[in-house]
Design brief:
The structure holds two protein chains of two kinds.
Chain A lengths: L1 E4 L5 E5 L2 E10 L7 E6 L5 E5 L2 E9 L7 E8 L5 E5 L2 E7 L8 E8 L3 E5 L2 E7 L6 E7 L3 E5 L2 E6 L9 E6 L7 E5 L2 E4 L9 E6 L9 E5 L2 E4 L10 E6 L15 E4 L11
Parallel strand pairs in A: 1-4, 2-5, 3-6, 4-7, 5-8, 6-9, 7-10, 8-11, 9-12, 10-13, 11-14, 12-15, 13-16, 14-17, 15-18, 16-19, 17-20, 18-21, 19-22, 21-23
Chain B lengths: L1 H8 L13 E2 L6 E2 L41
Antiparallel strand pairs in B: 1-2
Classes of the chains: A mainly beta, B little secondary structure.
């Protein structure tokens, strides 16, 4: 279900919309059942999505596709697109399906594009009820430049999930060569719990041995993760990286507030 | 421990902190609680190109977080 589809214009604006109370109440089967508040799969030169309020989007039923996506703002544009996604309020999303790396429940999911500018958004109450589901505030992948700042993200949940990274505030999975990710001034507050191997992250990013691949600059964020890890395994962490290499972790990264309830620096790949 | 992490990633994160931050409406649209207003641990360094907070207020190097608004300075 697509609540609002972007026009495929060179200069695209989507602003000041109210999108709410949409649902797929009885999903079933194993094919993806997707629900988007806003979606763009076109090729605008410039995509501007701002001042929108998106809430109460739900997928119920029994669908079990890991590729299912329930997303407030979904942008999957062309490699040259400049994106500006800002001043949006997104809350009350829930689903029964979807898991990393192809599915899940997210406030904002942005992939492809030359420049992703995601700022001043408030995202909360995002829930994935799937057994191995993932939920997140903001997920980005593929692109050359990411600026993610001034966002408030809280109350992200995956209560039945045993995924090792079932809840994330901000997640970057990009491995694009010569790409930069700036994560600044975000406030993330998580209090999730899940199954026996459940884990969570305030910020999660892809490490790389090449410094210019998804180079991450992390500054001035407040990252509070008071989630409960799984009973048999799983880690609650403020900041998670996928590899031990620090090559693409920018040295100016500094002045963050990190606070976790249980574990911090516990596993090799988790900082 | 934060110190272990700082050692591991040095010279990054040398001025990062692990301190309590208080919020109101923690299960919904969060905002800072007045108990965190004035906490010098929450003062951040300026970043070029980001001159305003989420409320549209100007950032500066000396600003503390604001009461009942929604952005870390």
């Amino acid at each position: 279900m697509n609540c609002l589809i972007a026009a495929d214009a060179a200069l695209m604006y989507c602003e000041s919309n109210l999108i709410y109370n949409n649902s797929i109440p009885n999903s079933s089967g194993t094919s993806a059942a997707n629900l988007y508040g806003y979606i763009n799969t076109g090729s605008p030169g410039n995509e501007n999505v701002y001042n929108n309020t998106i809430y109460n989007l739900t997928v119920g039923g029994s669908n079990t596709s890991t590729s299912s996506l329930t997303v407030g703002i979904r942008s999957n544009a062309a490699t040259g697109t400049v994106k500006n996604i800002y001043n949006n309020l997104i809350h009350g999303l829930s689903s029964v399906n979807g898991s990393f790396t192809t599915g899940g429940t997210y406030g904002i999911y942005s992939s492809a594009g030359a420049s992703h500018n995601i700022y001043n958004n408030k995202i909360y109450d995002i829930t994935n009820n799937f057994a191995n589901g993932t939920a997140g505030g903001c997920w980005v992948s593929t692109g050359s430049s990411f600026m993610i700042y001034n966002n408030f993200i809280s109350d992200i949940k995956a209560p039945n999930s045993s995924h090792v990274n079932g809840v994330v505030g901000i997640h970057s999975s990009t491995t694009t060569a010569n790409s930069n990710i700036g994560i600044y001034y975000n406030t993330i507050y998580l209090t999730a719990s899940g199954g026996s191997t459940f884990g969570s992250s305030g910020v999660s990013s892809t490490g790389n041995a090449t410094s210019t691949t998804a180079n991450l600059d992390l500054r001035n964020n407040i990252i509070i993760n008071l989630s409960t890890p799984g009973s048999t395994s799983g880690v609650t962490t403020a900041f998670r990286r996928s590899t031990t290499s620090l090559a693409n972790f920018s040295e100016p990264s500094n002045k963050n507030i990190f606070l976790c309830r249980r574990t911090f620096c516990k596993q090799t790949h988790i900082l | 421990m934060l110190s272990d992490y700082q050692t591991r990633v040095s010279p990054r994160e040398s001025n990062s902190r692990s301190v309590t931050v208080d919020f109101v409406n923690a299960a919904a649209e969060i905002a800072f609680d007045r108990r965190s207003v004035g906490d010098i641990n929450l003062v951040a360094y300026p970043i070029s190109g980001i001159t305003e907070d989420i409320d549209g207020d100007i950032r500066n190097a000396d600003s503390l977080i604001k009461e009942r608004t929604s952005q870390h300075q």
